[in-house]
Amino acid sequence: MQRQFLFPIMDHQPFFCFPESVGNYKEDGGHRVNRAAGTLNNFNIHYVAAGKGFVEIDGQTYALQRGDAVLYFPLQQQIYYSSEEEPWDVRWVHFYGHKLQEFLTEHQLHRSKLWTLRQPSAWEKAHMTLLEEAEKHRLLHPTALSMLTYAVIMEFIQQAEPLSSTKRHHATERIAELLPHLQNEACEPFVLEEWAERAGVSPYYFCRLFRKIMHMTPMDFITLCRMQKAKQWLIERTESTIRDIAMDAGYPNTSYFNKRFLEKEGMTPTEYRMVFGK
After folding, report:
1. N or C end of the chain, less CB within 10 A?
2. Are residues 147 and 181 in the same domain?
């Protein structure tokens, strides 16, 4: 579902702040925005009311969920998108006005792009009031539009606290918590996107954090776990063929299993069984 209203830009509007657009998207897993630096000359707040989404900033990807928001200043690069599995309910307002740069900087909103709101319902109410005014009266009541935009900004100032460092820490914790599950399910087909979704981050950021935690890639970890299982089975399952063990370890192609085993252990599975078998 999409609700949005766009206003014409007024170069000489007399108000302290005024909306350029206001809207709400939900149930749209394909929602994605990629704006190059210099594209938009206004401020904008994008807030997640439900579901999950992702924001890319300076080469890093951050997961957002209910109560989280991103605040862009004019001319900044903007890359954000919904989770396909849990599409977000994202609400936004683009706004501009006289001395807003100084005003928002005075309130320390230049410190971060990522924020979380302590009391999300207050901001949601202010935003919905602005959206309903825009849909109902359009530009008929410009003073009301300015006042309602100011209310949205002030609720954000009152409720927002920086998110980035906390979010990165939580994402690292979630990946660490998934390690036993990765080990237990290592012999099943490995789908990076599914594990990244379970961690609440993008595949790129999952790989980045995983390497930081484990000093290896996710696939290297999976291979290590599979080889440990295969070595155990080669010794314990004396009646099983190499092909059976390769299949159970996650390698339908026996030749590829033999190649990977030789790379990791310095001998073939058959040689390993002869040396270490009972």
Report:
1. C
2. no
